[in-house]
Prior knowledge:
By secondary structure, this protein is mainly beta. It has one domain (1-99). Helix content is 0%, strand content 25%. The protein contains no helices and seven strands. 31% of the residues are buried. It binds iron/sulfur cluster (SF4).
Amino acid sequence: MTAMMEMPRVQECTVTGCSYNHDGCRAFAITIGSLNHAHCDTFVESPLKGGIDTLVAQVGACKRDDCRHNLELECRAPAITVAAGQDMADCMTYEPTTI
Ligand code: SF4
């Protein structure tokens, strides 16, 4: 039997314009990271409602290998928050290792 690792939860998302946000992020799992910043790659503006009301989203993958919480392109933070930053929806828990 394979041990399940807990993925970090999206504790708070204030991006109300996203289809997955209805009283918090309701996507099953999100992906963080674009080439130049910690953008939420799952963010989508659409008339469709996304996700499942009873779920709290988790971070499925993160491409920001320069973040101190990132190990092997997976987030190891206990939880993250998402809000408008450089872009409409960014990971606010991102901490560059090079400061
Ligand atoms: S805290 Fe760092 S590793 Fe975790 S999702 Fe945000 S940018 Fe990625």
